[in-house]
Amino acid sequence: MAQYVFTMNKVSKTVPPKRQILKDVSLSFFPGAKISTVHGQMRRVGDRYVIAMFHPAAALHQAALKPDILADFAKLPELLKQARAGLGKSAPIIKGKVDEKPGDDPKQLSMF
Prior knowledge:
two-stranded antiparallel ribbon; 27% helix; extended
């Protein structure tokens, strides 16, 4: 697996007659890697950690990807903890007033 990430910034695509299908999109990928095999995995590239993920909208076009996407997102907290430990950092501290009252039970919204 390549030890670098290939990045393209501000990619645009226009098709006749003047129909713009992409505008200022940024893409990053591991050369030679297939997202179907590397999704949900974390790799260290230089002084950064990179986690390959399907775009959540992929499940709208390919319903079979939904379980993989949900499983990958469920892994994120642990992968971020590992990355922070590898970098010698802790979780960010949120300063300021929190509007939650004691007893409020926050609920994670679903992507689907």
